[in-house]
Amino acid sequence: MRHNQALRLTGCIAAAAVLAMLYTFGVPQLARFRFRSDLPPYDWGVYGAAPSRSYLSCNLTTPRLEILQWDSRCDSGFTFLAPRGFSVAKPSLLILDAQGEPVWVDYSWGEVQDFKVQQFKGKDYLTFWAGVEIDIHGQGSWYMLNTSYQIQYRISPMGKILSGDLHEFQITDNDTALVTIYDSIPFDLSAVGGPSSGWIYDGLFQEIDIMTGELLFEWRASEHYPINSTFWPMVGGDISKPFDAFHINSVDKDAQGNYLVSMRHTYTVSNIDGKTGAVLWTLGGRLNDFTDVADSGATDFSWQHDARWWGNNTITLLNNAAREYDSPGPYSYGMSIQLDVEARHATLQTIFSDSQKVLATSQGNLQVLENGNIFVGWGHSAAFTEFTPEGEILCDVHFGASAYYSFGRIVSYRILKGTWSGLPLTEPKAKIIGDGVYVSWNGATEVWEWQLKVSDQSQSENPTFSTLGKARKIGFETRISAPNINQYREFRVAALDAHGMVLGETETIKTEAIPIGNISNFQILLTATLISSACLAFWGFWKRYGSYRTWLWKYKTYHIVH
Ligand SMILES: *[C@@H]1O[C@H](CO)[C@@H](O)[C@H](O)[C@H]1NC(C)=O
Ligand SMILES: *[C@@H]1O[C@H](CO)[C@@H](O)[C@H](O)[C@H]1NC(C)=O
Ligand SMILES: *[C@@H]1O[C@H](CO)[C@@H](O)[C@H](O)[C@H]1NC(C)=O
Ligand SMILES: *[C@@H]1O[C@H](CO)[C@@H](O)[C@H](O)[C@H]1NC(C)=O
Ligand SMILES: *[C@@H]1O[C@H](CO)[C@@H](O)[C@H](O)[C@H]1NC(C)=O
Q: Which of 58, 59, 437, 507 to mutate to test the pocket of ligand 1 (most atoms within 8 A of CB)?
């Protein structure tokens, strides 16, 4: 009996310990999940929090998508994103086609943001920011790649030694660049409960002539907005952690030459005089100049991103309504807001929210497409959605499991659509697997059809190749059926455009097929032994070197952008 009582007591203590642990560590984590009973398996994480795809012909890995909804009315252009996150081994630049198939992926830039296609002097360029991220802003430069994926321009901030921030790189109709900069300066923070000899990140933007590098305009938020217009909680404020009072995250320019500036930490969209820098008006936040006569919610945005003009009287933005651990609203949504600037009236016209009502705790953007549709990238939530101008969802795509969105396993600061035509300097890649040849060409947008050519004369200088088969290019990687290819010595694959012109060819490859489907029992045993040993070694390492949290902090590739 004694023995049983002792056992019961031990059981109770163990159960209490488990409950206490769950309450302390488990519940706060569980609260961050967004489980819904109606989630499809992908969003529950059946394929992982950030599912990926790999290919047979090349080494590349791209996110595996979940297409929740697709409609032929969606824009037929490409989608530009820059996935990164705790579950993304290598951040990349990524272009997808209208069906969600990868077109180009490039890991060579490290951390990249704000990837899109823009026009400069009548030509298309891939533009983005690359550098290092420090304290939720960037220190780097802005790049422009031409159609062969080579750097044609690299832009840095002008004036005193400043480094370029990741939030904005917008090319205007006048071939100038609008860029953001975070500059630490000494500042009296007593009005917001901080040190009187404190430090802030001042919010700057510059307009730069891309060809000459001439600085055309510069604006500093601290010269125009009082520090107490911020909603950012007072933490730090010394030189080691300047107070991020303003946080400019988008700059746009109108036909009159004035600038539209979004500042996330003051909840404001400002119109700035293009000559004097004076604030012409402010929408939202504590310094709001507008009346919402229809009580439509036009000024009820918070932690927002990407304010743009849409025509002369309407502004679009993404109302995040959230930052980490603080959500003024239940979900994020795009807004179009009609302004009567003369009368200082603002009216909310349309809201754009996705089917799962995601909450983007940071990042994100809203783009008005050429065809009039509205396209939203959900930033910290790995999703993008295309709407009709009236707000009806047409296409809705996830590139990470939505139940885990708050954990930042995979995110993209912005996601935009556009047209692009690229011809890389690399060659297509091909491999024989079983009785098929798998071929792909990273970045080649104009390939219509693949042509498989074979030869017997490996010894001769100029072997003649004859066509064995053709296959229409479908998706990133195409399989060409080639059951008899082993009868030949070598092969290559040519990429043809829609007019039958050869755009490029793989190198000549020997026809040594990689056998499939005959893995021996010994190989299975060996693999199992290796995996078990690795698990044991990992467990030992874990016990010795501590917790998940310290491990996360040390993880350098991913940072949150606000
Ligand atoms: C795969 O990657 C490795 C190392 O990055 C490289 O050496 C190899 O050539 C690549 N293979 C192919 C098929 O691209
Ligand atoms: C792309 O830029 C590189 C480097 O400036 C240049 O050599 C090349 O000719 C350009 N290619 C195209 C297609 O413009
Ligand atoms: C901010 O400070 C100014 C003085 O600089 C004061 O007039 C104003 O009332 C303050 N606003 C808030 C919201 O505290
Ligand atoms: C382009 O330049 C013209 C002439 O300097 C100016 O009036 C106009 O505001 C500029 N537009 C933009 C978008 O910069
Ligand atoms: C916007 O305003 C400009 C100048 O005031 C005018 O030329 C243009 O037609 C207007 N555009 C629209 C769409 O109303």
A: 59
